[in-house]
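Continuing from yesterday's entry. The apo prediction looked reasonable, so today I'm repeating it with zinc ion included to see how the binding region is handled. Same sequence as before; SMILES copied from the compound registry.
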Amino acid sequence: MATCDVCGNDYDKSFEIRRGQVIHTFDCFECAIHRLAPQCARCACRIIGHGMESEGQIYCCASCARQHGVTDVADRGDERNTIEAIGRAVQAL
Ligand SMILES: [Zn+2]
Ligand SMILES: [Zn+2]
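Holo prediction written out below.
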C-alpha cells in the first residue's frame, strides 16, 4: 500500500516511477501522466509518447510545432500524406 502523489489514494496496486533522483508514487497511469508528462508548448496537451523537441520546446506533433514556426519537423501524418501524394503522382503518369 502506498499513497498516490497526485490524488492521495492509498492503493494496493500503486507503483513508483523514478526520474533522476526523485521517486514518485502513483495509483494509476493517469495520475503519473498528470504529474510527469511534459505539455505541448502550443496546445498544452500532455505528451505521453516521444513528442518532438525543437529549440528547448516540446510539441505533441509536427502540426503544433509548425504552428509555432518550427519548420524542420515531420511525423507519420506527414509521411502518410507524402506516400499518398506519391501514389497520386504515379497514377497520373
Ligand atoms: Zn492518483
Ligand atoms: Zn500540441
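Comparison notes:
- Residues 76-92 form the longest helix (17 residues).
- DSSP finds three helices and six strands in the chain.
Will overlay with the apo model tomorrow.
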